[in-house]
Amino acid sequence: MSSERGSVAGSAADRLEAARADGLDRFPALVGFDGFVDAIIHVVGSRRSMDDEDYQRIATIPEFAARCGGAAGKSTNIELFVREERFGGNGPLMAGALGRLGMPVTFIGAVGEEDGSDKVAEVFQPFAERCREVIPVASPGHTDALEFEDGKIMLGKPQAVQAVTWDRLVERVGEDELRKRVEDAKLLGIVNWTLCGGVQGIWKGLREHVLPKIEPDPDRRLFVDLSDPAKRTDDDIRSALEELGKLNESVRVTLGLNRAEGERIARVLGLDAFDDAHNYPLGSVMRRGAAAIREELGLACVVVHPREGAAAANAEHNAWFEGPFTSSPRLSTGAGDHFNGGFSFAQALGLDLEQSLAVGTAVSGAYVRDAISPDLDRLIGFLRDLPAPER
Asked: Is residue 48 in a domain?
């Protein structure tokens, strides 16, 4: 580990130790509003026998694409082996990461039983145990997560989460109760705009009916992840970004993007922020991209996280941190949500930009190695002995 990288990671660990000693109860979070049941799947290439796990998986996305492409004009049968089903959705995964780190988390979203009751669905019970409070307002969507060595393909079925709207929140929670929970929170997390049609209306409802009626708090932050807007039109994206700009007038907004999302947002905004990716070091390209998007939108912060690390920009400066990339993760579904949880956790605790990037990449790095969200002890230890990135 380079001395500078190690120094940043070590200082972040020190700050987390100090925050824990002072008490994390001072930093409540409110997160919402989606919810999915994730089936973690291997795509079977060939079988040695019909015993459950006696198969050779299709290891890469190009190999899978070739198998699908070869079926054109014919047909094919592809076996999907479900390794496990677990709670998912960008909101629950982010909230679960925060809860494991010790933040008091309130979650509102699509985590209810299929019968429409106000009970938390069984698959979400382990998640609910990490939170201070969970309020179901709809049943979850479903996702088939096809995992490969070089990435994952998420096949989403989001019909159920379309029930989560501003009107549904007011009906199930109540406007006064929403105000109380927002006013209590140091961190607000609102994610999965892409799959949840009601999210933009929730942003507007908070801006018009909640934030003007609560005590202003300069330390309160809102973290937003659009969550892969590839299928949404440019006009949809411009409308969402305009609403985020309005929200930033009432609360400091951080927009979180992975690399593909950053490149899409830059194109929609007419920026050439990522065009020099082949001519300059990755870190400098990501820093310039984050800074350009932040300046154009007028947000408090923009963070862009390719798998090799993460860059962020605020009004004062920008930074890059090389993460602990591993080429052999035990679990990759949810890695980005864990980065979001770690980065926003560090921001809420008042860590600086470089330290927040270190924490975000460390939470994600520990998660993909352990296949479980790290607690604060695991995170601090991971930061103090941060693995070198695998090439």
From this structure: no
Contact 138, 110 (CB under 8 A): yes
146 in a domain, yes or no?
yes
Residue 257: how many other CB atoms lie within 10 Å: 28
9-27 confidence digits (pLDDT tens)? 999 999 999 999 999 999 9
Helices 3-22 and 335-348, packing angle to 10 deg: 70
Structure tokens at 324: 């602990």
C-alpha to C-alpha distances, 50 to 12, 43, 45, 85, 199, nearest whole angstrom? 49, 15, 13, 21, 44
Interacting residues of 259 by C-beta distance below 8 A, sequence separation 6+: 274, 286, 304, 305, 306, 307
Give the count of domains, the chain.
1
Q: Write down the residue that tokens 């509102």 correspond to.
A: 108
Report the alpha-carbon distance of residue 131 to residue 106 in Å, rounded: 6
Residue span of the structural domain in which 350 resides: 3-41+86-384
Q: Which amino acid is at 125?
A: Q
Cα atoms in the Cβ-side hemisphere of radius 13 Å centred on 156:
23
- 210-263 tens-digit pLDDT: 999 999 999 999 999 999 899 999 999 999 999 999 999 999 999 999 999 999
Q: Domain holding 354: CATH number?
A: 3.40.1190.20
279 lies in a domain? yes
Q: Cα(291)–Cα(304) distance, rounded to whole angstroms?
A: 10
Model confidence, pTM = 0.91
C-alpha dihedral over 67, 68, 72, 78, to 10 degrees? 90
Q: What is the spatial distance between Cα 5 and Cα 321, in angstroms, rounded to a whole number?
A: 7
- Considering the domain boundaries, does residue 76 fall inside one? no
